[in-house]
Amino acid sequence: MANAMLQKAKIAQQDEYYTQYVDIQTEINAYLEYDPNTFKGKTVLLPCDDPEWSNFTRFFAENYSALGLKKLISTSYAPDTKREKYGVLFDWAARDIDKSRGRIFVLDRDVTGDGRINFDDIEWQYLDGDGDFRSEEVRKLRDESDIIVTNPPFSLFREYFAWLIESGKHFVYICNKNCVTYKEVFPYIKTNKVWLGATPQSRDLIFRIPKETAKRFLADELAMKGSKYKIVNGEVFGRSAAVWMTNIEHGRHHNPLQLMTIADNRKYSRHKEVRGVGYRKYVNYDAIDVPFTDAIPSDYDGVMGVPISFLDKYCPEQFEIIGIGLELADMKPIKARLGKLDGGPRLYTEQDGELVRQYERILIRRRK
Ligand SMILES: C[S@@+](CC[C@H](N)C(=O)[O-])C[C@H]1O[C@@H](n2cnc3c(N)ncnc32)[C@H](O)[C@@H]1O
Fold first, then answer.
1. Of 15, 92, 250, 332, which has fewest CB within 10 angstroms of its CB?
2. Which residues make Cβ contacts (< 8 Å) with residue 206, sequence separation at least 6?
């Protein structure tokens, strides 16, 4: 019980992780490199934002003309609603606003009359409610927009994803790496309706965090030292195994991986688990285990289980996704041998007579 509460608190604290400008810039630039007109004439909605502070708003406002935007809309969640639950990042108390209400910020014209449309031209007003993305008024804004971009609250990720899909719009969002395995999400990845953004999974995304969270991290109440936070120039940043996801083309997922044959992997693989060993079959699914993406053999026609990080390199013209261990693993032979089940469905190999539980795997097959 205590564990479940701690887990909930850990997830909730990530609701207040704020994205760095450079990370937004890197991701969005990749779409522009692929197609400079990606945002041209479009209305962009940034829900779950704090427009006065958010780097999402700053980035899109500062690049309003360069992107050719028609309109930028950001909405913010009422500070009071946040504070009660998770603590604050900014000094809201000092601000003369009604903190029980959400706000809407719009940029679509040159208000200052300086001949440019930028951050200084943003106009704002209160929303009727607290700015919850699920509210009728924010839903309406969603339906008016063309592209929806944000780092949503992690604890509401499933709801946010359903809300995006329901909209039928284009989108870019940040989420925890594990979210790709959710049963609500994975079918969209499998059928190439949603894919990883351009930023590699290996990039260490760090986020600005409320002071309370930073204090807790430093006191090591909730943090595993080092892995949950990073100190940069004296500021404590939250660390999260986060990835960008999208349904907008950025071109990078159409580059096929250059791979070696089974025989060459056995001889030359840089991984000791593969070199001189080859590939093990799963005990509970008809496929071989490939523990590293760069060890995928080029000449195997059957099904292969690969780590989640494969999605970074996934080229739908090269491979077909069959499913995920979570949904495909047959746990009967495991239960029969171990007499118990350890956690959820997982793929197992056998090594020296012992069953070895693998990390989550995606099952793929080479396209011919
Ligand atoms: C992970 S933070 C990201 C903030 C900002 N988009 C960024 O990346 O810098 C998520 C934001 O959503 C807000 N939020 C939490 N629950 C929300 C809800 N139900 N509707 C809208 N926003 C919400 C949080 O208070 C927080 O400001």
1. 332
2. 20, 230, 232, 237, 238, 239, 240
341 and 278 within one domain: yes
Q: Is the CB of 86 under 6 A from ligand 1?
A: no
Tell me how far the alpha carbon of residue 300 lies from the centroid of ligand 1, in angstroms. 45
pLDDT digits (tens, 9 = 90+) for 275-330: 999 999 999 999 999 999 999 999 999 999 999 999 999 999 999 999 999 999 99
CA 44 to CA 120: how far, in whole Å? 18
Domain holding 279, by residue range, is: 255-366
pTM to 2 decimal places:
0.93
In this structure, the number of other CB atoms found within 10 A of the CB of residue 124 comes to: 16
Q: How many structural domains compose the chain? A: 2
Kindly state the DSSP code that residue 134 receives in the 8-state scheme: T
**d(Cα 205, Cα 129) in Å, to the nearest integer?**
32
Sheet with 18-19, side-by-side order of all strands: 18-19, 206-208, 235-239, 229-232
| Substitution candidate for ligand 1 out of 11, 77, 150 with most atoms within 8 A of CB | 77
Please work out whether the CB of residue 39 comes within 6 Å of at least one atom of ligand 1. Answer: no
Last residue of a domain, one of 236, 251, 266: 251
